[in-house]
Amino acid sequence: MTGGAVTGKVAGAPISWGVCEVPGWGYQLPAARVLAEMHDLGLTATEFGPDGYLPSDPAARSALLAAHRLAAAGGFVPVVLHERAIDPLAAIDHALAAFGTRPDDGSGAPPRATDGKPVLVLAAATGRDGYDARPELDDDGWSVLLANLDRAAEHAAAHGYHATLHPHVGTMVETRDDVHRVLDGAAIPLCLDTGHLLIGGTEPADLAASAASRIGHVHLKDVAKALATRVTSGELTYTDAVRAGLYQPLGQGDADIPAVVGALARAGYDGWYVLEQDTVLIGPPAGEGPVAQVRESLRYLRSLL
């Protein structure tokens, strides 16, 4: 099951194997299996997965990844950013401690997504478990959120890391209007997630073309639009839609992945493309399990790159 060398900066993510931070999400495969299968596919890097999935000690985490010959591409970190009473920097410091925090080099220049360090991928968490509902945010909440986004990015930079914001279903930044409010009101780069943007009403290829300079990280997933429409209308919860096959291997859904990759390539994007096909496992998988669909996505992406 060994894959060939991959062209471009392509990484895996444990969520493609059903590993998720949401309580009760589904059966969680052990890290040793997931990391071994990533390496066997020919992937050279991974995101970390949810808090606690990999060792929290940065030396132990690095050793585990090195044992599977994988680099660290980034970590998805949901943080409450819209509440005045909550300082998000504490949660960010907790995450960066596992990244292996380090001061900047004294040059005053911010870190880049391409400097070999894992990317801090923030999501504007609601404070609730899961992604099936979110509260409405008033103008004061938006003011706090936007200010905290830039505080978070500056704080991460002071520790030598590049931060991005991940628009995500069921968070405070989900819809097209939300995305543009962040683009207009904050300086933090975005993680372009083709699935979450499309479900929230943003055409990923349009964003890649119109705001390429703001894209600091990329999650690639394909979407069954019929199920996405049912999520948007409220007919189906996000979790139930994922269980029903909301996310498909690249090239088998309705997201225009070639247009996204093409727009980013024309803009000179040289960060990570992270393969993310969110999956729910009911129990231990029979046969190959999730790796089979990751292989299909990797083959398709390789054809584009």
Task: Tell me about this structure.
The protein has 305 residues and is α/β, with parallel strands linked by helices. It has a single domain (11-103, 110-304), classed as Divalent-metal-dependent TIM barrel enzymes (TIM Barrel, Alpha-Beta Barrel), CATH 3.20.20.150. The protein contains 11 helices and 10 strands. The strands form 3 sheets. Strands 1-10-7-6 form a 4-stranded parallel beta sheet. Helix 3 (88-99) packs parallel to helix 4 and helix 7 runs parallel beside helix 10. The longest helix is centred in the middle third of the chain and has 20 residues, at 139-158. It is globular. Mean pLDDT is 92; it is low at 1-7 and 102-114.
Strand-helix topology:
Blueprint: E1 10-11, H1 31-41, E2 45-47, H2 58-67, E3 71-80, H3 88-99, E4 119-125, H4 139-158, E5 163-165, H5 176-185, E6 190-193, H6 194-200, H7 204-210, E7 215-220, E8 222-223, H8 225-233, H9 238-243, E9 247-248, H10 257-266, E10 273-275, H11 291-304
Parallel strand pairs: 1-10, 2-3, 3-4, 4-5, 6-7, 7-10
Antiparallel strand pairs: 8-9
